[in-house]
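Milestone M4 deliverable, item 7.
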Amino acid sequence: MITALEPVLIDSEIKRGISLEPGYAHESNLKRAAWHLYRYTKADNEKTIELFERAVAENPNASGRHEALAMGYLWRLTFGWAEEPKCTIAQALAASKKATELVTDDAYKLAVHAWALMWGGDSNLAMAEIARAVELNPQSAMTWGVRAMVAGHVGNADVATAAIQRSLSLSRESPFLFQYASGAALGYFAQQQWSKAAEFAETATLRRPNGLTGWVVLAAANDAQGNSNSAASSYLTLCELCPHMSESWLRSFMPIHSRPLKDAIFSHLRDLGLR
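Output delivered:
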């Protein structure tokens, strides 16, 4: 049974070659769900959610199952797969909150809840939850990484850029590094450190090429630096990943709480052709 979703441990288990492939009768639904979670495709994510929803129904008092289910919903949001984003945000918030209610002093559950709160638009509570997570486990690359991500999105640039450096000093192997790097890129962009913003945005795209936020910030940061060819190339990749993209859709998709930061990014994207 997965009692706590420590992403690095699950990812390491997969990389070591333990059989998590679906179709083996001896594997639990939880392991199958974890396998699908790290495939990073829409179809796999839907299977992840289905299996974790089933696991929660089987044992609604297992906090780790709610935490893992919340991650499935957060992936649906992160990659732009949610057909009804408000509904998915509500589901992520409910699942992550339930996990923290069942176990009140677990840093990873608090980090996932902060992540969901970021999507829900509650800047203050998101920052408070991730601060508690860091306090509970200051040696976790994940808690510091999520702090960088949350702070970058809510507009606390100084916290975001400091947190990513602390996270990287602890580990560079997290499967969620692309998310942490995206938050750091937003922080550096807000500080008008265009080259650092581009550096971390590029890290995000290299770690997870189908993640949208990395390409958004990379295109905008390169445009801000006057690197027109790199900016155009990044924007083209973004369009290929999201052919239905428009400014209104992208604005609603990206949970950036700072209006000046959001406006600055979209000003550069409009220079590149976003309408």
